[in-house]
Amino acid sequence: MDLFQIILLALIQGVTEFLPISSSAHLILPAAVLGWEDQGLAFDVAVHVGSLLAVVTFFYQDIIQLVKHWFLQLIKQPHDPQQSRLGWWVILATIPAGLIGLMMNDWIELNLRSVLVIASSTIVFGLSLAWFDYQGSKTRHNVDMSLKQALIIGFAQALALIPGTSRSGITMTASLALGFTREAATRFSFLLSIPLITVAGIFKTFELIEQGTATPWTDIITGVVLSGIAAYICIKLFIGFIERLGFLPFVWYRLLLGTMLFVFWFAG
Question: How many whole angstroms separate alpha carbon 31 and alpha carbon 39?
Answer without folding.
Answer: 9
